[in-house]
Specification:
It is a single chain. With 98 residues, the chain is of the alpha+beta class. The protein is 18% helix and 39% strand. It is built from two helices and eight strands. Strands 3-2-1-5-4 form a five-stranded antiparallel beta sheet. Strand 4 and strand 5 form a beta hairpin. The longest helix is centred in the last third of the chain and has 11 residues.
Length: 98
C-alpha cells in the first residue's frame, strides 16, 4: 500500500500508479477499490475518477479549481464535492499545511 501514489479510473477499469513508476490495471471500479483499501487511512478519494495516497502528495492547491500535485508529477483534480473532506484529512495528516 505504501507504493501506491494514486489510483485513476474510467468506468469499471482502474489503474494503480506506484512510486516506482509502475501502472497496474484491474477490472474493478474506483469505489470497489476504495472500499477494499478502507483499512489504509492514507488513501483518500478526491474525485469520481481519482484517489490519492496522502503520503505521496508534493503540493495541494486550494484555489477555486483544487489540484493535487503528486510525488510522481501527476496532477490530480479535486472535485468541488470532495474538497472539504480532502483538505480536512490532508491538514490533519500534515500539520504544517497552511
Amino acid at each position: 500500500h505504501a507504493e501506491i501514489v494514486h489510483i485513476s479510473s474510467k468506468g469499471m477499469r482502474s489503474d494503480i500508479h506506484t512510486a516506482s513508476g509502475g501502472k497496474y490495471s484491474c477490472s474493478k471500479s474506483l469505489g470497489v477499490l476504495c472500499k477494499e483499501l478502507s483499512h489504509v487511512p492514507s488513501i483518500c478519494r478526491v474525485h469520481n475518477s481519482f484517489a490519492v495516497n496522502l503520503h505521496k502528495i508534493s503540493k495541494a492547491k486550494k484555489a477555486k479549481q483544487g489540484l493535487i500535485i503528486m510525488s510522481n508529477g501527476n496532477v490530480i483534480p479535486i472535485s468541488k464535492r470532495r474538497k472539504p473532506e480532502f483538505f480536512k484529512k490532508y491538514s490533519e495528516g500534515l500539520p504544517e499545511f497552511k
